[in-house]
């Protein structure tokens, strides 16, 4: 009597056994192994397509000190927390509005530096901000312009994040040298 009963698919085989599986109740992996794909390679998808954000710390002359790669859709304030671990002491930190969060301001002050970050428009408590000091932020913009002179970095020819970051470090070393 049980032999005539079919599963919901109507194939007549046991519901737990696939046609291409050797053992009963064996199924495809649930993704518990190592992570693969675009996210682990710092490739994100945003409105402009696939992209990668490069976060950096520079000195006053615009020479790079540290880099961090994140996917394009990742929040800047999360990356800022990781990047601030390599911050030099007793300096003024200029950052754009994307890095304006209480956590980042606290991290900067804990390391003995002073944050000069313009407040977001939706922020209730506006911290002190000097537009005159903020003019020094162009150093990091000049550094990114020099990095984009390397076409390989501007268009990200490398698939792997480690290779891309290595090329950024190579270009940064050349920037220090010249």
Provide a brief overview of the structure.
The protein has 178 residues and is of the alpha+beta class.
Word description of this protein:
This protein is α+β, with helices and mostly antiparallel strands. It has one domain (about 40-175): Nucleotidyltransferase, domain 5 (2-Layer Sandwich). Helix content is about 30%, strand content about 15%. It is built from 6 helices and 5 strands. The protein has a 3-stranded antiparallel sheet with strand order 1-2-3, sandwiched between helices. A two-stranded parallel ribbon has the order 4-5. A hairpin with a 5-residue loop joins strand 2 (about 50-60) and strand 3. The model is unreliable at about 1-10 (pLDDT under 50).
Strand order in space, largest sheet: 1-2-3
Radius of gyration, rounded?
25 Å
Gap between N and C termini, in Å?
85 Å
CATH class membership: Alpha Beta
Name given to the CATH architecture = 2-Layer Sandwich
Please provide the ordered H/E string of secondary-structure elements: EEEHEHEHHHH
Question: How would a crystallographer describe the biggest sheet?
Answer: 3 strands, antiparallel
Based on secondary structure, the structural category is alpha+beta
Number of domains: 1
Average of per-residue pLDDT values: 79
List the helices and strands and how they pair.
Elements: E1 44-46, E2 49-58, E3 64-71, H1 76-83, E4 92-94, H2 102-110, E5 114-116, H3 131-134, H4 138-148, H5 151-155, H6 161-177
Parallel strand pairs: 4-5
Antiparallel strand pairs: 1-2, 2-3
């Amino acid at each position: 009597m049980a032999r005539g009963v079919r599963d919901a698919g109507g194939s007549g085989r046991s519901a737990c056994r696939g046609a291409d599986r050797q053992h009963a109740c064996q199924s495809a992996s649930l993704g518990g192994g190592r992570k693969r794909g675009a996210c682990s390679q710092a490739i994100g998808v945003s409105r402009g397509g696939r992209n990668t954000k490069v976060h950096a710390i520079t000195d006053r002359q615009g020479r790079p000190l540290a880099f961090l790669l994140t996917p394009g859709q990742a929040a800047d304030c999360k990356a800022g927390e990781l990047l601030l671990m390599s911050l030099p002491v007793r300096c003024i930190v200029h950052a754009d509005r994307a890095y304006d969060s209480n956590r980042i301001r606290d991290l900067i002050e804990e390391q003995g530096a002073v944050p000069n970050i313009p407040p977001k428009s939706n922020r209730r408590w506006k911290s002190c901000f000097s537009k005159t000091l903020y003019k020094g932020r162009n150093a990091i913009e000049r550094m990114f312009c020099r990095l984009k002179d390397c076409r390989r970095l501007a268009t990200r020819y490398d698939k792997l994040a480690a290779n891309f970051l290595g090329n950024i470090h190579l270009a940064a070393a050349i920037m220090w040298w010249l």
